[in-house]
Design goal:
Oligomer: single chain
CATH class of the largest domain: Alpha Beta
Helix content: 40-55%
Distance between the termini: 24 Å
Structural class: alpha/beta
Length: about 325
Amino acid sequence: MTAAWPGAPRGVPVTIALGPPEHGVTRFAVDSARAAGTPLLEVPDVTALPAALADIGPVPVHLHLTDPLFGATPDEAATTVEELAAGRPVGVTLHDVPQPAEGAERCRRRTDAYQRIARAAGLVVVSSEHERRLCADAGITADAVIGLPVPELAPPADLTPDTRSVGVFGFLHPGKAVDVVAEAVAALAAQGGTDVTLRLLGAPADGHDDYVRDALDTVRAAGGRAELTGRVDDEDLARVLGEVTVPVALFRNVSASGSLGTWAAAGRRPLVRDSDYIREMERQRPRSLLITDGADLAHDLRRLLDDPAPTRFAPPPPGWDDVGREYRAAWTRWLA
């Protein structure tokens, strides 16, 4: 084990981007390290982590952590971090913070793991005040809140808006309420709106292929159209998000969301369900969201399909410079 990673500046950690490059948390780790101008080590999966760490020596590291990337179970993920922290200072950004809405038993297991991770870490960062409150309820102290930025999307070379489509963007799983959106689109189709299309702009999250297939089938069985794009390449994001008629981000439970920032970067104001986190985001980026109570989603969709103008606005400026500065400040306080 070497004494230090050559070229690593004093007073900042090496950011570990663990996981497949297309994973949202892994991508955020890469982008935040670049924004902060600090060392980055990309590791494809948790099995490769020990060898990667041996190469850099006992320098401080910062982890962007959601438990499935660090272990097959939340308990294994916590053990991974504890073992890592035994040999070096460790900071963490907690993503997908546990919350009761995900189910009592799952929340309990993940909360136990995140408590262990926080105890092992010298710095704990979260991405929203809502997450800070969730952590406090779980007995976890978050040292800093560094919000998710609006990314920078190049304007599309060509844009042909859909006539009547409803779009859900990102990795697709039950937390995105894809089934609820599909049922509302199916209701419109059954009422004679067979020209409406459900566009799922992404790929199923691991283990949720059947869930996504059922959502598509729900719309088609009612006479509507439904399509799954698969992962959208970065250079196509602005066009794909810009073309859909009604963007929807109807989370069942959300504590921080990169997809909201991506919708904003494309100049889109998605339809969202009212929640503590959603109100926080609306305060940060006023008039960037269309908030519903979800009581009659089919009615909300029909109204916006007939007049989609409220779903478009001028994109806010990217926020990566701010993210970089805030991470540098947090690391300075931690490693001073």
